[in-house]
């Protein structure tokens, strides 16, 4: 099927959504997505961030679609023509959706662990307004512990439901979900039960905001002071391929590796994520480049370094020399361990 997005033509398989086709094209035509997650079945259709304008339905029926459509749940038709970045209507709609998502979201980026890698922060940076029209009181909740390693800050939740799908599809017994309706809707475990499963930590990675955070990393460092390195270990529960986030020679956080759309490449187990914080637990492969153009890399990191070099400051971090030294990992050898560390 032929589809044209922002004037760029691409041929895709039947059943492809507009968002998937846009991702194949890449660049600025890719709509933002806060709830769609390609690795989670049934995701999408909730946040409306990915609205696009269909100016021609198909070759068979060229009538434009009267309303903007959610690109993550709208399949392409042969001959369809779509405007994403080129449409003033789309731009206005994204601004409105961003404003809507921020209605109840606290402006606590300065103390939020997700700051710097938050999809909502990035969305606001691109489409947000500098002022709010919302003068009513925001709804608030107490932080909730859901197990020893995960904390829920419901105030920050945008109800994208990715975590619910992740728990459903990666773990045996989901114990949390969306409770209540409308303005009262919230993510909760009801009884503050632990999400007790080896893959439960992945809800942290799929959460687009700072609603679900890693308690082993909380308040340790701003993410832009950490240096991400690809690392692996022999793990009998998951792929063992992760990104370790270092401050000096200390591993402060372990996450799954994320692609250019900020989606996890392969889900990892809780042992790798929460329990392996020694450098000797890992074989460090080399610096991980930031794929997604976001707040964390703006004006700081080269998006596509021509060459990645191990154990050198080149291409990893720009900025003041004294800062580079402070957060470098000079003591960590290129290969710390060639053997199994499971
Ligand atoms: S906690 Fe995070 S992942 Fe779960 S619904 Fe809220 S925003 Fe989405
Ligand atoms: S990403 Fe399409 S509606 Fe949320």
Automatic annotation (TrEMBL):
Native organism is Flavobacterium suncheonense GH29-5 = DSM 17707
Instruction: Family membership, please give it.
Output: Belongs to the complex I 75 kDa subunit family.
What residues does the 2Fe-2S ferredoxin-type domain cover?
A: 1-88
Q: Which cofactor does it need?
A: [2Fe-2S] cluster; [4Fe-4S] cluster
> What sequence ranges are listed for the domain 4Fe-4S His(Cys)3-ligated-type?
89-128
Q: What lineage does UniProt assign to this protein's organism?
A: Bacteria, Pseudomonadati, Bacteroidota, Flavobacteriia, Flavobacteriales
The protein's matches in Pfam families, at most eight in alphabetical order, are given as: Fer2_4, Fer4_Nqo3, NADH-G_4Fe-4S_3
Report which superkingdom the organism of origin falls in.
Bacteria
> Signal peptide: which range, if any?
none
Keyword tags: 2Fe-2S, 4Fe-4S, Iron, Iron-sulfur, Membrane, Metal-binding, NAD, Translocase
Q: Which GO terms describe its molecular function?
A: 2 iron, 2 sulfur cluster binding; 4 iron, 4 sulfur cluster binding; metal ion binding; oxidoreductase activity
Q: Where in the cell is it found?
A: Membrane
Protein name per Swiss-Prot or TrEMBL: NADH dehydrogenase
Q: Name one GO cellular component term.
A: membrane
Q: What is its main location?
A: membrane
